[in-house]
């Protein structure tokens, strides 16, 4: 472990792969953000800047398509922006190499080391055949691989990984249904997505925030598929539980307004 300090350099390819596999929201939560302090709309995450620590404005955004952040406050060190590994390294005050190693370990995504002269080749190949303890790692791999494919928009590949993870790793059942739902939603297979989110909601024994996330996604897919009444119902349930949850308040208002709209028009028509 001693050599693991900070002297390692990793290939850009593997850093890019790792960066894109990080779930931006989880990273923000790691930096002690409460989920309600994070807002995600479409492909943008918005929050108070963890670098210059603003309290009044959400100047800080992460583009979820490529996991790049930017702070819009010109005096901030984050103004130039960068990837999430860089963000993690400045906020946690660690080197970029340490940040990369932390996320590599957390997500179980290997990094390729750039060899410096004299570096020992031997330590690289640690895949000895007999390792019963590795089984858990393999299981987690399918889920993380799925997430990684999902973030790169390789949805068929992602679905395959999540299907394997489903039979392999029952502990993650709720999260797997959620991810499958997100994959199908992106593919436009709304009925399949609805089915997955509903299955996820039936899983027992998870934290409240996991169910909130599923309800939110279920509401979104109802909305996307034109089932506005169902969407409104589910957003209202979520809004009652947690009025500050993401943009649920705006969604309820918008849908309520739309709901009320058709009625007067009908009356008008009958007068013409
Ligand atoms: Zn900032």
Present the secondary structure layout.
Layout: H1 12-21, H2 24-30, E1 39-41, E2 44-47, E3 60-63, E4 68-71, E5 82-83, H3 84-92, H4 96-107, H5 134-151, H6 155-168, H7 173-187, H8 190-202, H9 208-224, H10 228-241, H11 248-260, H12 262-271
Antiparallel strand pairs: 1-2, 2-3, 3-4, 4-5
Description:
The chain is an alpha+beta fold and 272 residues long. The chain folds into 2 domains: 7-115, DNA Primase, Chain A (Alpha-Beta Complex), CATH 3.90.580.10; 134-263, Tetratricopeptide repeat domain (Serine Threonine Protein Phosphatase 5, Tetratricopeptide repeat, Alpha Horseshoe), CATH 1.25.40.10. 56% of the residues lie in helices and 6% in strands. The chain contains 12 helices and 5 strands. It has helices at residues 12-21, 24-30, 84-92, 96-107, 134-151, 155-168, 173-187, 190-202, 208-224, 228-241, 248-260, 262-271, and strands at 39-41, 44-47, 60-63, 68-71, 82-83. Strands 1-2-3-4-5 form a 5-stranded antiparallel beta sheet. Strand 3 and strand 4 (68-71) form a beta hairpin. Helix 1 (12-21) packs across helix 5. The longest helix is centred in the middle third of the chain and has 18 residues, at 134-151. The radius of gyration is 22 Å and the shape is globular. The protein starts with 11 loop residues before the first helix and ends with a helix. Mean pLDDT is 81; it is low at 1-6, 117-136 and 263-272. Bound molecules: zinc ion (ZN). Zinc ion is lined by residues 49, 51-52, 59-60, 71, 73, 76, 78.
């Amino acid at each position: 472990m001693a050599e693991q300090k900070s002297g390692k350099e990793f290939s850009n390819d593997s850093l890019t792969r790792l960066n894109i596999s990080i779930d931006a929201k989880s990273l923000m939560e790691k930096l002690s953000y409460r989920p309600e302090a994070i807002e995600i709309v479409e492909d943008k995450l918005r929050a108070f800047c963890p670098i210059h620590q603003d309290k009044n404005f959400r100047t800080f955004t992460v583009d979820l398509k490529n996991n790049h952040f930017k702070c819009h406050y010109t005096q901030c060190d984050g103004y130039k922006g960068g990837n999430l590994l860089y963000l993690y390294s400045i906020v946690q005050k660690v080197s970029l190499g340490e940040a990369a190693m932390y996320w590599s370990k957390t997500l179980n995504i290997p990094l390729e080391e750039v060899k410096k002269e004299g570096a020992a080749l031997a330590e690289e190949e640690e895949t000895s055949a007999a390792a019963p303890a590795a089984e858990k790692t393999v299981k987690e791999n399918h889920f993380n691989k799925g997430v990684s494919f999902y973030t790169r928009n390789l949805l068929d590949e992602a679905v395959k990984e999540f299907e394997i993870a489903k039979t392999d790793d029952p502990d993650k059942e709720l999260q797997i249904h959620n991810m499958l739902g997100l994959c199908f939603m992106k593919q436009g297979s709304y009925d399949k997505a609805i089915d997955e989110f509903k299955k996820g909601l039936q899983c027992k024994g998870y934290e409240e925030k996991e169910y909130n996330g599923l309800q939110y996604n279920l509401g979104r897919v109802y909305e996307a598929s034109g089932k506005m009444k169902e969407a409104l119902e589910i957003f209202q349930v979520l809004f009652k539980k947690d009025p500050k949850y993401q943009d649920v308040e705006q969604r309820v208002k918008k849908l309520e307004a739309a709901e009320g709209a058709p009625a007067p028009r009908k009356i008008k028509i009958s007068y013409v």
